[in-house]
Design brief:
α3 packs across α8. β11, α4 and β12 form a beta-alpha-beta unit. The chain has about 400 residues and is α/β, with parallel strands linked by helices. The protein is built from 14 helices and 17 strands. Helix content is about 40%, strand content about 20%. The protein starts with a strand and ends in a 7-residue tail after the last strand. It has a domain of about 190 residues: HUPs (Rossmann fold, 3-Layer(aba) Sandwich).
């Protein structure tokens, strides 16, 4: 969280919860009871960080802390200039990459765009063929994402291969299986198939993985070993940006002038507009979909089949389709009970404002580190100490 060019805290959202940690004031957990309003549930969480409330209708439950669990935010910068960073990469992996095809799966989000910009700069130092692929999921993803990718292609002068999941298959799956939900995102196989096909056809292709070390706990655990060993390229997996800090990523994207509209609307991520991993407040605004009538029919069928224990109006307002029905029922009951008991609130407009500042206001001042691996090492130390905010160690510490 940024205010007048200074870091004032850390904010993160996941599931239907938001965590806000203000410097010197501790952390508070909030549960979204509507798209516009969240309530403070910090004092209601048990030792595991779960919200368990009981009423005459049974028990309400929400795994609040696990939803917002995140690796430490490292307040530092690596990239003073793309040229300098590209030169460093070229010295590290130039021999292995030279003359080969490098495949990047591009989403339009900040991490994949930063990876694309780094690769384009790296091409000025190392000769390789860049293959950029964008995979569109019809019906669940707004056409505006396609337009944004086209704008990126035109402005950067890079060819981006457009691949679309089979429309007939997606329509059949939506009608048959209902909306994708947490734990069952059948749509993701269409994101992976085209990439796997290219990798299978040409064993010399190098795949760029745009994951960032501090993006999520699972990625942190998976990538921390590579960071400890100071590895960027292993086998056919190339991770040119995984050790960059969030400030690095945002700065690189902002300098390009190519900011996805979802970020300016206050969303922390770029994903399908009907992705089940979106937080409830993100559904305050949904871009125009290509076939809203189809989606409405799928919503109604999904409700009738699994969620008819509540009203259709509540099902739609809470976007309960994101959760398996067995989880959605105690979650909804927890919201109903806690909304009456909690006095402290958080408004959607506040969260949106914090998110927008990252893309419009002055970025917070942060120290530059001369050694790119310092950010990863700083994050690892903070992770072991269970700290959410990490600062690089000064010499002599």
């Amino acid at each position: 969280m940024v205010k007048r060019g200074e870091l004032v805290g850390v904010i993160g959202s996941g599931g239907d919860a938001t965590l806000i940690c203000r410097r010197g004031r501790g952390c508070r957990y909030y549960l979204w009871v509507s798209v516009d309003r969240a309530v403070d549930v910090t004092e209601w969480l048990d030792k595991r960080g779960s919200l368990i409330v009981r009423g005459t209708g049974g028990e309400g439950f929400a795994p609040v802390r696990s939803w917002v669990m995140a690796p430490p935010y490292v307040h530092a910068r690596i990239v003073e200039s793309l040229d300098g960073y590209a030169e460093w990469l070229a010295r590290l992996v130039g021999r292995e990459v030279r003359g080969r095809r490098v495949l990047l799966g591009f989403s339009g989000g900040k991490d994949s765009l930063a990876a694309l910009l780094v690769l384009l700069k790296l091409q000025e130092y190392v000769d390789f063929r860049l293959h950029v692929m964008y995979i569109h999921i019809p019906f669940l993803e707004s056409p505006r994402s396609v337009r944004f990718v086209e704008m990126v292609s035109e402005k950067l002068g890079v060819e981006i291969e457009f691949v679309e999941a089979p429309r007939r298959d997606m329509k059949a799956l939506l009608k048959w299986k209902g909306m994708p939900r947490r734990g069952y995102r059948y749509c993701t196989m269409y994101k992976a198939k085209p990439m796997r096909r290219v990798l299978k056809e040409d064993p010399r292709v190098i795949e760029v993985v745009g994951d960032r070390l501090t993006e999520s706990p699972k990625r942190f655990e998976r990538l921390s070993k590579a960071a400890a060993a100071r590895i960027i390229l292993i086998g056919r997996k190339f991770r040119p940006t995984y050790m960059l800090s969030l400030l690095d990523i945002i700065s690189i994207v902002r300098e390009s002038g190519l900011i996805h509209p979802a970020y300016l609307e206050g969303s922390p991520r770029v994903a399908c507009d009907l992705c089940p991993y979106r937080v409830l407040y993100e559904f305050h605004y949904i871009p125009v979909l290509e076939d809203p009538e189809l989606i409405e029919r799928v919503f109604e069928k999904t409700w009738r089949k699994w969620y008819s224990w509540t009203s259709y109006e509540t099902f739609r307002e809470q976007h309960l389709w994101r959760f398996p029905a067995k989880m959605a029922k105690p979650l909804l009951y927890a919201k109903e009970l806690i909304a009456e008991r909690s006095e402290s609130e958080l408004e959607r407009s506040t969260v949106v404002d914090y998110m927008r500042r990252l893309w419009r206001d002055e970025l917070p001042r942060a120290p530059y580190v001369s050694e790119p691996w310092t950010v990863a090492e700083t994050a690892l130390r903070a992770w072991r100490r269970r700290e959410l905010l990490a600062l690089p160690m000064k010499r002599g510490d």
